[in-house]
Amino acid sequence: MNPAAPAAAPSVPPSLPPAMPAPATDLAHAAVGHDLSPLALFLQADPIVKGVMILLLVASIACWGIIIEKIVAARRLRAEARKLAAAASGAVTPEGGLAAEVIRAGAREWHEGRDPAESRGEYRERMELAMRAPVVSAFRAAEPGLPLLATIGAVGPFVGLFGTVWGIMNSFSGIAASGDTSLAVVAPGIAEALFATAIGLVAAIPSVMAYNRFTVAFTRIRQAAFASIHELSAGMARRPAPSRAHAHAHASRAAE
Questions:
Q1: Which residues, including other chains, have CB under 8 Å from residue 198's CB and lie 6 or more apart?
Q2: Which end of the chain is more exposed for a tag (fewer CB within 10 A), N or C?
Q3: Do 208 and 64 form a contact (C-beta atoms < 8 A)?
Q4: How far is Cα 105 from Cα 98, in angstroms, rounded to an integer?
Q5: 206 pLDDT exceeds 90?
Q6: Residue pLDDT, tens place only, 109-150
């Protein structure tokens, strides 16, 4: 009788080697290997994207310079419009500035006298046109720069978008060349590209807001000044005016 064969030992599946975690140093390097601060994004950008950023930064600086200048101009013109309103109500007679220049222009026309062929309305209109001329000149001198604000506000985002598109194209070219689609490779180029759009918006948003604000402000101040001039000219036209012949004779005697 054959002895019983020993029982076969149960088969134990071979144990799998433990998964090796990614080295902490590699993860840290992927996370901090690229500086995404604004200055670093500018320095690392493609030359064309960098040129777009510089152009937009210059436009933003110019925008704020114009804004400060227009704030000062609007305050000055608003103060002159108040002086004209006070003069129209008879509260005060301006002694200097734009308001005094307007009064002098009207006074010159009044001393010039009324032509016999002129109606009272035509006489008043002639004085009003003469008084409006200094105001028109003052606003014409205050308005340069507003078209540049409108241009920056309209074009700035598209210039930034051009930089973004160019930067993304460069990022895709880098991905194709390296064959690596990891976030560490893609993120820096995308960040540089989007930074150009951000600068474009930073330049455009204040420009649009300032352009609209100053356009409305200058229009309202001009309308207030013209309303005061209308009252002033109407009051001057009601005064007894010398005839034009008498005015010329008086001017000739004064010249002698």
A1: 160
A2: N
A3: no
A4: 11
A5: yes
A6: 777 766 666 677 777 788 888 888 889 999 999 888 999 999
Strand, helix or coil for residue 114 = strand
Lowest-pLDDT range, 14-23, 137-146, 153-162? Answer: 14-23
> What is the value of pTM for the model shown?
0.70
Q: What gap in Å lies between CA 146 and CA 144, rounded to an integer?
A: 6
Kindly tell me the number of DSSP H helices and DSSP E strands found in the chain: 8, 0
Burial string for 200-237 (b: 16+ CB within 10 Å, else e) reads bebbbebbbebbeebeebbeebbebbbebbbbbbeebb
Q: Long-range contact list for 41-47, CB < 8 A, 24+ apart?
A: 41/191, 41/192, 41/195, 42/195, 44/188, 44/192, 45/167, 45/192, 45/195, 45/196, 46/166, 46/167, 46/170, 46/192
Rounded distance, CA 74 to CA 217, Å?
A: 7
Q: How far apart are the first and last CA of the chain?
A: 165
Q: Residue 243 pairs with which residues in a beta bridge?
A: 114
Structure tokens at 31: 């996370």
Residue 201, pLDDT score: 92
pLDDT of residue 183: 65
Q: Is residue 5 classed as helix, strand or coil in its secondary structure? A: coil
Query: SS3 string of 199-225?
Result: HHHHHHHHHHHHHHHHHHHHHHHHHHH
